[in-house]
Amino acid sequence: MPQLSPVVPDFPGLARNIRPAEPSRAVSRVDGFARSAEVQTTLGEAFTLSGYGLHTGRAVTVRAAPADAGAGIVFRRVRRSGPACVPALWHLYEAQPLCTALRGPDGTLVRTVEHLMASLSAFGIDNATVDLDAEELPIFDGSALPWCAALAQAGRHTLALPRSRLRIRRTVEVREGDRRLSIEPAERFSVAGELALAKLGPMRWQGEITRDSFVEALAPARSFGRLKWAVPLKLYAYATGRPVLRGANLRTTAAILGDRVIGGMRGADEPVRHRILDLVDDLALIGHPVLGHVIARHTGHRLNHALVAALLRDPTAWELV
Fold it and tell me: How many domains does the structure of the chain reveal?
């Protein structure tokens, strides 16, 4: 099985301009969103949200705006010296505690991108420019619902360039102890997830990942953690100056104490739903919508990125269609 090590690219991402044979340009409109299986999309209009980072605790304002076809999702750190671009692609992943972080070619870091990236993926947004005036995106209430509300209001605009999907040709699997994650051929993107937490028991969720299923079942699931680990980690972070969980509190995170949840959860199986939300984000860093079925057992960001790396480094395991 692939070793879990920091992701180092074997090639500079996937080409975004591969054209499928004779693409259909047919477009329909459902619930205010243009639906097309074959053409790329961007935001219908820009939107701005502000909040505080989960790890840095710092205020941040994010502005997401439409982008040209083929641009992909690009984060831009806005600084006095000028913007620094960080494309949302798997080979720029950098291991950071309890989040998905990306480090650009010039060393610029953007962290906690998971809830926005998962929402953009579920809403079918291929191209967008995301400006932020701090290192970390806001955590809000620990869920992806604020991003979904903004995306629903912004709408979606179709572009005149074909969309390529990454179709799984054979099963790829990674493991770490009792943690297991695999992806296998399927006609749609679906996930079957399992998670067991001490004193809370086993939890399961499975289903196809669509805009509706994401908004209804996954986006409301909040970030969570055990108080017995979070409190010492916060104290360590303040003592050492490290940006870890400084913005974590009962408004941003569901805290588990024994067999109780302090700060509220929105369902008995909410932790596994949140892990699947994070999985949707980490797969979105492939840069193309995925056609495949994922089986996840006790997964997290580290294992998710190990699967993406193992998959994309094996050209016999996938194809662009």
Answer: 1
